[in-house]
Amino acid sequence: MVYNIVFEVDGGCRRNGAQQPVGAAAAIEKGPSGRTKIHTERLERGESLPEPTSSRAELTAINLALKQALQKHDELRSSPKLNVEIRSDSKYAIGFANQDLIKETCGLDEQIRERGDVNYEWIPRAFNRQADLACNRELDEQEAEMEEWDQQGAEMEEWDQQEAEMEEWDEHEAEMEEWDG
């Protein structure tokens, strides 16, 4: 037996990136009977907690839905296979590019925790100068490569155009010879 649950999720943050941000997540559960149940969660604030952001709120909404699905599964008398569908208007939270990165990060985190511990800490940008500089250097290199490729592409286009003009000239000369001959 399969138990199907659909969640529509959303997360938001007011005053994102400013003082006193507040964040919330919501998961609307739509069970097989068609009944709707609303689940919400506040993004807690505190000294040892990360500040609420829109990104954190969107991912919290997905986590909320997953937790509710697991709780629902535990409440069922039989242990059916769960089929959970999560819908979100956040390309960040759902998008394949981010989803694979999130899965990879979680997998790596899990591997570290099997061997010890891992800690995540926000630091002000001023204290992150070395990593910031290294990242910007890499970005500069990538932009320089792109500019070089663009320049090479423009040179190739110019070369192709000159080649086409030469072929056109050769055809013209051949026609002139036919007229003369």
Polypeptide structure, described:
InterPro entries: RNase_H-like_dom_plant, RNaseH-like_sf, RNaseH_domain, RNaseH_sf. GO terms for molecular function: nucleic acid binding; RNA-DNA hybrid ribonuclease activity. This is RNase H type-1 domain-containing protein. Strands 3-2-1-4 form a four-stranded mixed β-sheet. The model has no long low-confidence stretch (mean pLDDT about 80). The termini are far apart. About 10% of the residues are buried. The protein has helices at about 55-75, 90-95, 95-115, 130-180; strands at about 1-15, 20-30, 35-45, 80-90. By secondary structure, the protein is α+β, with helices and mostly antiparallel strands. The chain folds into two domains: about 1-120, 2-Layer Sandwich (Nucleotidyltransferase, domain 5); about 125-180. The longest helix is centred in the last third of the chain and has 52 residues, at about 130-180. The radius of gyration is 29 Å and the shape is elongated.
Q: Which characteristics define this entry?
A:
181 residues; 2 domains; single chain; 4 helices; alpha+beta; Nucleotidyltransferase, domain 5; 21% strand
Short description:
The chain is α+β, with helices and mostly antiparallel strands.
- Largest beta sheet: strand ordering: 3-2-1-4
Mean pLDDT: 78
What structural class results from the helix and strand content? alpha+beta
In DSSP terms (H or I, runs of 4 or more residues), the helix count works out at 4
CATH fold type of the largest domain: Nucleotidyltransferase, domain 5
**What portion of residues belong to β-strands?**
15-25%
Main β sheet profile: 4 strands, mixed
Radius of gyration: 29 Å
Give the termini separation: 88 Å
CATH architecture of the largest domain: 2-Layer Sandwich
How many beta-strand segments? Answer: 4
The domain count comes to 2
Q: What's the CATH class label of the largest domain?
A: Alpha Beta
Proportion of residues in helical segments: 40-55%
What is the assembly state of the chains in this entry?
A: single chain
Domain RNase H type-1: 1-148
InterPro entries: RNase_H-like_dom_plant, RNaseH-like_sf, RNaseH_domain, RNaseH_sf
Protein name: RNase H type-1 domain-containing protein
GO molecular function, one term: nucleic acid binding
